[in-house]
Amino acid sequence: MSGSTIIFYLLAALTLVSGFLAVTSRMIFRSAIFLLFSLFGIAGLYLWLQYEFIFAVQIVVYVGGIAVLIIFSIFLTQKSGEELPSQNRSRRILSALAALAGMLLILTQIYQHNFVGSTEKPEEVSVARIGSQMLDVTDQGYALPFEVVSMLLLAAMIGCIVIAMRSSDKKQGST
Amino acid sequence: MPNSLYIACIPLLPLVSFALLGLFGTRVFKNLSGLLATVLLVVSTILAIWVAYNYFFHFGQANGIYQRIIAGQVTWLRFSSELSIDMGLMLDPISCMMIVVVSFISLMVHIYSLSYMKGEERYPTYYAFLSLFTFSMLGLVLSSNMFQIYIFWELVGVSSYLLIGYYYDRPGAVKASQKAFIVTRFADLGFLIGILVLSFYSNTLDFNTLIERLTNPASPGLKTALASSFLGISAITWGSVLVFMGGAGKSAMFPLHIWLPDAMEGPTPVSALIHAATMVVAGVYLVARLFPVFSISAPASLDLVTFVGVLSALLAALIACTQTDIKRVLAYSTMSQIGFMMFSLGVARHGHEEQLGYSASMFHLFTHAFFKALLFLCAGIIIHLVHSNEMNDMGGIRKNLPVTHICFLIACLAISGIPPFAGFFSKEEILQASWQRNKVVFWIALTTSGITAFYMFRLYFKIFWHKPLGHQASHADTAEGDTMIRLPLVILAIGSLLTGFIPFGRFVSADGTPVHTDLNLIFSVGPVLVGLAGIFLARWLYLNKNDAPEKIKNGTRALYTAAYHKFYIDEIYVFITRRIIFNLVGKPAAWFDRNVVDGLVNTTGNTTQIVSKKIKGLQSGKVQEYAIYFLLGAGGLALLFIYGWK
Amino acid sequence: MNDYLVLMKSEWLITITIFLLLILKVRGEMRSDRLLSIAQVMLLIATIVGFLFNRYGRLFGSMYYTNPLIGFQKALLTLATYLISLLCADWFKKTQHLAEFFILMLTALLGMFLMISSGNLLMFYLSLELSTIPVAALANFDLEKRISSEAAMKMILSSAFSSGVLLFGISLFYGATGTISFSAMSNHLSGEPLQTLSFIFLFTAFAFKLSVVPFHLWTADVYEGSPIAVTSFLSVVSKSAFAFVFLIAIYKVFYPLEKTWYWLLVITSIATMVIGNLFAIRQQNMKRFLAYSSIAQVGFVLVGASAGMSSGTSSVVYFMLIYTFSNLAAFGVVSIISERSGKENMTDYKGLSRSNPFLSWVMALALFSLAGIPPTAGFFGKLFLLTAGASRENYWFIVIATLNMIISLYYYLRVVRSMFMEKNDNPIQSVAIERSVYFGLILCGVGIVVTGLFSWLYQYIVSLI
Amino acid sequence: MNLTALLVIPLLTALTILLLRRHHLVKWTALIGSIIQCLLCFVLVAAFRKEQITSPSDFMYFIQQFDWLPAWNISYKLGVDGISIAMIMLTAFVVLAGVLVSWNIEKMTREFYFLLILLSLGAHGFFLSLDLFMQFFFLEIAVIPKYLLIGIWGSGKKEYSANKLALMLMGGSALVLVGILALYFSSPDKTFDIVRLSEIHFSTRTQRIFFPFLFVGFGIFTALFPFHTWVPDGHSSAPTAGSMFLAGISMKLGSYGCLRVATFLMPEAARQYSPTIIVLSCIAILYGAFATMMQKDLKYMNAYSSISHCGFILLGIGMLTRTAIIGSVMQMVSHGLMTALFFAVIGMIYDRTHTRMINEMGGLMKMMPMISTAFFIAGLCSLGLPGLSGFAAEITVFIGSWQRTGLFYRTATIIACMSIVVTAVYILRAISQTLMGPLKNPAFGNIKDANWNERLAAVVLIAGIVLIGMAPYWLSELVRGGADIIAGRLMSK
Amino acid sequence: MHPGLNHLLFVSTSLFFIGVYGFFTRRNLVTILMSVELILNSVNLNFIAFNKYLWPHRLDGAFFTVFVIAIAAAEAAVAIAIIINLYRSHQSIDVEKAEELKY
After folding, report:
1. C465 in reach of chain D (CB within 8 A)
2. Domain locations in chain A as residue ranges
C-alpha cells in the first residue's frame, strides 16, 4: 500500500466522516466546522489528483468564501450553543432509506458500467493554460461561460442587497 | 267520369272552411262561421251525391263489375322507388257510399248545430273542428293508399279529440278526450305495425296493388308472407290482425271500446256525427277496404273479427240495458250495432256465394248512420230541455217535443229491426249471413237484437212516458227550437224510413258483382218476433212507473252489477295504466334516470373532488418533503427505465 | 465580429437594458414610473428586433448557436416579458426596487436566451442557473410579506437540490461520453443503463423547471407567495424557455434515447395532467389555482412534445405562444384585482362581471383559451398538441389527455361561474385600469383571438423548423 | 352560390352587436341578421335545386376550398348536400325564432345576442364544413356560448346544469377529437377532408376501435342513452332561446355528426355496431318517453321527450337503410322545429305565469288562445299527427327500419313504434293539465296573449312544421341525394 | 489496491447522498444550505475524477468544476440573503416554521 493510497483513504475518510457529521450534528456551529473539514478533504482530493488550480479555487471560494458566509449567517440567525431541533424519526428513517436506495442504485450503475476513457495524450493542467482558455472564444475557450458567471454574480449581488438590506425605515415584522 | 278536381273538392272544401275558420274565425267570421261551413259543406255534399250517382250508374262498372277507380293521385312522401305515400282519390262502391253518408250526416249536423250551438263562446272553433273532421273523414274514405288512410285515420282521431274536449273547462270532457285519443292511439299502433307488415310483403302502399299482390297466390310477396311466420301465425295474418286492431280501436270494439261512452262528454251533435254515424264505423270500413286480403290470404283473422264483433255486440247490449245516461245508452248501442257490422264482415268470404255478410255489413253501416244520428240529435234536444243526461230525470216529455218524439220512435223502431224501417232490412241480411255461416253467431246475434229492442224501448219509454214530467220543465216548454233544428230530424227520419228499400247488394259487394238479397220472409219472422218481444218487455217494465224493474234488478244482482259497471273493463284499464304503466314503468324510469344515470354522472364528478381532497397531503408545504418526492420520483423513473423497460 | 452583434442581438439588447437600468439606478433619483417606461420601451424594441434578422450561426466555438426558430423563441420570451412589464404596472409602481427588479428579471431573461442557445452542457447549466437564481431573489421582492420569503426560500432550496441532481447527471454523462458538447454527445449515446440514468437525472431538471409531476411541488407554493409579476414570469417566460430547451434537448441531443424519453414523457405527462387537474379543482386562491392550471397545461405540452421533431416543436412553440397570451391575461386580471382590492380568492370574484365587465370578459377569454375552447387560440394550441401527440398512434394516451381536458374545463368554468353567475353581497368594487395595463390586456386579448384563427403564424413557425 | 356568405352574415352580425351600445339596436341587428340569413338559405335551396338538375349525382355542391393550415393538411373547405341544406335551413329558422322570443331580455342584452349569434355561427359552420378539423372547431364553438347562456340568463339550478352540460358536451367532443385524429392518421395522405376520407377504406380494426369514439362522442350531443343526463337539466335551466337552440339545433349537431362522420366514414364498423346503436336508441325512445310521462315541469317534460325523439334519429341512423336515413334527417329537422316551438311556448307561458309546474296551471287556454294553439300544434307534432312534420319523419324512420329484416330489427322497430302511444299520453296530459280544465289559479285570470314578437316567432316555426307536414315530399327529396350516397357506401362492402 | 476511478466515484456518490440526507432531515435552513454545498462538492469531485481518469485530453471537467464552484457561491449568497430575510419575518430559520403555503 503506497503512501499515495494511504493519503487517498485518509482524505476520503476525512471528507465523508466530517460530511456525515456536518449533516447530523445537533450543534450548528460544530456542523459548520465539520463542513469546513469536509471541504478541506475535497480540496485535498483535488490536490491528490494533481489539479492544483482547482484546489486553489476550492480553498479560496469554499473555505474562504462560502464557509465564512455560512458561519456569518449562523451568527446572524442563531444563538450559539443552542441545540438544533431534531427532525422526527419517521422522516429521518425515510430519508436515510431514500438516500441509501439512491446511492445503491447509482453505485450499481456506476460499477456495472464499463467506462472507456480516451486514449489521446493528456492535456497538461497549468494555471496559465487555464487562464488563457478561460478568456478564449474559440473551440476550447470559455469566455462566454465566464461572462455568464459574471452576470450571475452581479445579479446575485444586486438581489442580495435588495433582499438582505431591507430599508430600515420600514417597520420590521411580518404582515 | 267526373273531373278529379270535383272529386277532390269533396274533402277539400271542408278543409278550406277549416283553414278559414281556424285562422280568421274568431276575428272575421264570428257568428257567420257556421253558415260559411255549412254552405261549403252543402256544395261538398252535392258533389258527393253527384259523384256517387255517376259512379253507380254511369262509369263505375266495367263488365258488370264495379271497379276500384283511382281518380287522381299525388305523391306526398316517397320512401323508396316502390314505397310511397300517394294522396289519391279512390272511387269504389264503398267509398262512394261513404262519401255520401259522411257528407250528408255531416251536413245534417252542421245545420242542426247552427242553432243548437248558437251562443257558444267558441262557435267558430266548433265549426272549424267540425270541418276538420269532415275533411279528414272524407279523406279517409277516399284513400287510395294504405298510409293515406292512416294519415286521415289519425286526423279523424285528433278532430274527435278536439271535439270531445270542446268544453275544455269541464274536467270530465278533458279526461274523456284524452282517453279517446290514447285508446285509439294504442290501437293505431297495431294499425301502423300492420301497415308495415303488409307493405313490406307487398312492397307497395297502394291499395289496388297491395290487394292484388296479397291475394294473388302467384305473387312472390304473398308467398313469403305466408311462409314466414311468427309464433306459428303467418306474417300476413299478423298484418291483418294488427290492421284490424286499429279498426277495432276506432270502432270501439271490445276490449278497446272504453273510450266511446266517455266520448259522450262532447257536444251532442258531435256525438251524432262522429261517435255514432261516421268515425266509429271507420274500423268497419277499414276491414271492408282490405276485405280481399283478409278473406283470401288470412281467413283466420276474419274469425277474430267475427268473434270480436259478436262479443262486442252482446256485451254492449247488456251494458246498455243498465245504463241511465241516455247518451251512454246510445253509445253502447252504437258499439253493439258496430259489433253487428263487424261480425257480419267476419262471416263473409270473398267469392260470389259467401259475400252476403259484406254487403249486409255495409248496408247496416249505411242505415245505422241515419237512425243513430237521428237518435243522437233527438237526444240533444231532450237534453236541452231537461238539462240533464240522466234518464231518471226525464219522463213524459212527448207533449213538449212532438216532432222529436216521432222521430225518436222511428229511429227506435229502425234500430230494433221492425219492418219496414231501414234497420230491419240490413239487420235481416246480417242475420241471414251469419245463419249461413255460423249458427252460434246467429243465435247470439238474434239474442242481441232482442236485447237491442229492449233497451232502446226502455230508453224511449223512460224518456217519453214512464212518469209525468218532473219539475225540470213545464208543459209549455219546448226545446225543439227553430226549423234549423227540426229539419235535420225530419230528413233523417225519412232516411231511416226509406233507406231500407235500397237494393244495396246490387251496388255494394266484396268483388263488385251484384249480390242478390232475397228477402226471406219466413226467415224474418223469428227476428222480428224477438224484436217485438223486446219492445213489449220494455213496455211492460217502463211504460209506467212500477217496481218490476227493481225486482228484476235484484233477481239478477250479479249480472246486473257487472253490466252496470261495464263488466269492470274500465277498472282493469285503470289498473293497468296507473299501477303498471305509471307505477311500475314510468316512475321507475324517471327514478332510474334521476338517480342512477344522473347519479353516475354526479358520482364521477364527486369522486374527482374526493380524490382531489384526499391527495392534498402531497403538497404538504414542507420543502424537504418536496425534495424527497423529487428524489423518489427520479429514482423510480430510473428504476423503471433501467430495469422495467427493456 | 458582425456575427457577434447580429446573432446575439437579443442578448445585447437585454444586457444594454440591464446596464442602463443599473446606471440610472446608481445615479439615483429617477422616478420609478420613468424607469418603468424606459424598461418597457427597451423591451418593446428588443421584441421587435427579436423577430427580425434571425438566421443560423455558431459562436464561441459552438458553445452558442442560434437559428431562426431560436431567434423567434427569444423574441417571444421578450414579448412575454414586455407584456408582464405592462400588465403588472400596478405592482411595479408600488415597489421601491423597480430597477433592481428589472435588472434581475432581465438577467434571468438573458439566462434563458443563453440557455436556448447553449451548445454544451456547461453553458446550459450556467444559463439555467442564471435564469433561476435571480428569479429566486425576485420571489422575495414582496419584502414585507412572510409568504414571499417563504416562497423564495422554497424556490432557492428546491432549485439548488434540483441543480444538484442535474449536475450529478451531467457529471455521469461526462464520464460516460467524455464530452459536454451537445453535438458530440449525441454520437456517443447508446442507451446504456448509465446513460439512461443520467438522462433521467437530466430530465428531472427540466421536469423541475417545467413543474412536471412529481417534480412540481415547489410550483404552487412559489407562485402563491411571490409577487404576481414574478409568478407571471415563472409561469410563462420561464416555462416557455424551458419547454423550448427541452425540445431541443430531446430532439437534437438525446434523439438516440427516443424510446426512453417517449415513454418518460407519456408517464410524466399523464401524471402531470392528472395531478395538476386534481389539485387545481379545489384551489381557492387565484394564483395558486393558476399555478396548478399551468402544471396541468405542461402535461399537455408534454403530449405534444412526445410527437417528435417537426410537429412536436411547432406545436409546442405555438402552444407556448398562445399560453403566454392566455396566462398573462389571466395573471394580469388577477394582478389588477389583487393590487386594487387585495383580494385573491375565487369567492371574491363572485359577481365580478357586474362591477368589472371588461376584466371579467378578459378573464373569461383567457380561461377559455387555457381550457382550449374555440374560437380562442387555446383551442388550436391544444388541438395541435394533441394532434402531434396522436401522430404516434398511441391513442389511449390521447384519450387520457382529452379526458383531462374536461376536468380542466371544469375548474376554469368554476371561475367563469363565480364571475358571471353567482351573486355576491360584497363584490369587488369597480377598479380603474391604467392605460398600460389596459393596453396589455387588449394586446393579450387580441393575441388570444387572432393567433388561432390566422394560420400564418403557425405556418411561420413550421417554416422556421 | 358562395357558401362563405352563410358564415359571414352571422359573423358580421355578431361583431356588429359587439360594437353596439344601445339595446334596441342590438336586437334589431340580430333580427335583421337572422332574417338575411334565412333569406340566404332560401336562395341556397333554390340554387341547390338548380345545380342538382345539371349534375344530379354529385357528392357535394358549391365546394369551396382554401388552405388553412397546410402544415396539418387542414383546409377551409365548405360544401353542401341536401342533408346539410336541410340542417342549415333548420338552424336559420330556429335562430330567427330564438331572436324574436328573446326580445324582452333586459340583462346584458348585447352579450346575450352576441352569444346567440355566435351559436348560430357555430351551427352553420358545422353543417357547412367538409373538413373534419373545421367541423370540430365549429362543434366546439357551439358549446361554451351555451354554457354562458344557461349560466347567466338561465333559471333554477343553472350553475349546476350549465356545468354539467358543458362538461358532458366537451366530453363528447373529446371523444370526437380522438376519433377524428385516428381517421386523420389512418388515412394514407393524412387528410381531414371528408370527401377524401370517404374514398378511403379504413382497416377493420381501425374502424372497430374508433367508430365508438366518434359515434358516442357525437351521440352525447344527441342524448344517446346513457349519456343524456345533460339534456333535462340543461334544457330546463336554459333561457327560452337557449333551450330552443339546445334542443333545436345543438342536438342535431350530434346526430349530423353521427351520420356524416361516424357512419359515413366508417361503414364497416357502422354495420358491426348497428345492433348496439339500435338497442341504445330503442332504450332512449321508450325509456325517455316513460320518464317524460312522470315529469312535472314542462321544460323537463320536453327535455325528456327530446331524448325520446332523438332516439328516432339515432334509430334511423343505426338501421342503415336509405329510407331510415332519410327519415332520420327528416326527424332532425322536424324535431328541431317542433321542440324549438315547444320551448318557445313554454317560455311564453313561464313569462306569464312564472311557473313551469304542470300541476300549478290549468285552463290557460281561455286567457291565451294564441299561445295555446301554438302549444297544441307543438304537442300534436310531437305525438306525430299527420299534417305536421313529426309524422312524416317518424313514419319514414319506421318504414326504413322495417326494411331491415330479422327478428331483432323487427322487434326494435315495434318497440320504437310503441312510443307513439306513450308520447300521446304525456303530451295530452300536459296539454290537458295546463291549457284545459278550469282555471286553477285566479291570478292567471288576467294574463295576456302573445306579443307581436312571440307571435312572429311562433308563426315562423309553425310555418316550418306545417310546411313539412303538409308536403314532406320536398324535404325527403332534398335529402335523398345525400342519403343515397351514405346508404350506398354502407351497402357497398 | 491503488485507488482508482471507482474509489473516487464511491466517495463522491456517498458524499452526494450524505448531502441529500442532510437536505431531507435538517430543520435549520443554514444547515440545509450546508447540505447543498456538500451535494455540489460531490459533483465537482465527480467531474475532476472523470477528467483525470477517463478524459484527460481536455479540461472540460475541470472547467465545469470551476464554474460550479462559482455558481455555488452565488447561490449560497442569494440563499443566505433569503434566509436572513426569512429570519426577519419569521424570527426563526426553522424550515418547519415556514409552511404557510401548502395544499
Report:
1. no
2. 1-82, 125-175
The boundaries of the domain holding residue D316 are: 5-491
What are chain A's partners, defined as 3 or more CB pairs within 8 angstroms?
Answer: B, C, E
Using a 10 angstrom Cβ sphere, with 0-12 exposed, 13-18 middle and 19 or more buried, the burial of residue B549 is middle
Quote the domain boundaries for residue E34: 5-90
- Determine the average pLDDT of the residues in D277-289: 89
Gap between the Cα atoms of C200 and C194, Å rounded: 10
d(CA C189, CA C177): 8
Q: Cβ separation of C410 and D182 shorter than 8 Å?
A: no
CA distances (Å), origin D235, targets B77, B591, D150, D307, D454:
32, 19, 9, 11, 19
pLDDT per position as a tens digit, C196-221: 999 999 999 999 999 998 899 999 99
Q: How many domains does chain E have?
A: 1
C279, pLDDT greater than 60: yes
- For chain D, the chains sharing at least 3 beta-carbon pairs closer than 8 angstroms are B, C
Residue B248: partners with Cβ closer than 8 Å, 6 or more residues away = B187, B254, B256, B283, B308, B342
Cell of E70: 462559482
Query: D97 with D457: CB under 8 angstroms?
Result: yes
8 Å CB contact between B147 and B205: yes
pLDDT of residue C1: 54
ipTM of the complex in this document: 0.91
Percent residues over pLDDT 90 in chain A: 34
Give the span between the Cα atoms of B612 and B616, in whole angstroms: 6
Taking the C-alpha atoms of residue E7 and residue D253, their distance in angstroms, rounded to an integer, is 70
3-class secondary structure, D78: strand
Among the CATH numbers 1.10.10.10, 3.40.50.1240, 3.30.565.10, 1.20.120.1200, which is that of A1-82? 1.20.120.1200
For residue D327, what are the CA distances in angstroms to B192, B194, C81?
16, 19, 58
- When CB atoms are compared, the residue of E32, E36, E74 closest to C133 is E74
Residue D102 — φ and ψ, nearest 5°? Answer: -85, 15
User: pLDDT tens digit string along A41-74?
Assistant: 999 999 998 888 899 999 988 888 888 888 888 8
Looking at the 3D structure of chain D, how many domains does it have?
1
CATH number of the domain encompassing residue E60 = 1.10.287.3510
Give residue-wise pLDDT tens across range D227-258.
888 888 888 888 888 888 888 888 899 999 99
Collect all residues with Cβ–Cβ distance below 8 Å to B644 and sequence separation of at least 6: none
Does D145 or B229 have the greater pLDDT score?
D145
**C64: which strand partners?**
C59, C118
Nearest-Cα residue of chain C relative to residue B619: C217
CA distances, B266 to each of B176, B269, D217 (Å): 9, 8, 50
- Please answer yes or no on whether C200 and B638 come within 8 Å at the CB atom: yes
pLDDT at A175 over 50: no
pLDDT beneath 70: ranges in chain B: 1-2, 352-353, 467-481, 517-519, 645-646
Asked if residue E39 belongs to a domain, the reply is yes
User: So where are chain C's domains?
Assistant: 2-464
H or E element, residue B124: helix B123-142
* pLDDT at position A174 over 50: no
Task: For cell 455558431, name the residue.
Answer: C58
Question: Is E96 inside a domain boundary?
Answer: no
Contact D152, D107 (CB under 8 A): yes
Note the pTM of the prediction, 2 decimals: 0.90
The CA-CA-CA angle for residues B156, B161, B165, to 5°, reads 150
Per-residue pLDDT at C104 = 93
Residue E100 placed within a domain = no
Taking CA atoms, what residue in E is nearest to C225? E101
In the DSSP assignment, the letter for residue C254 is: S
B624 touches chain A (CB under 8 A): yes
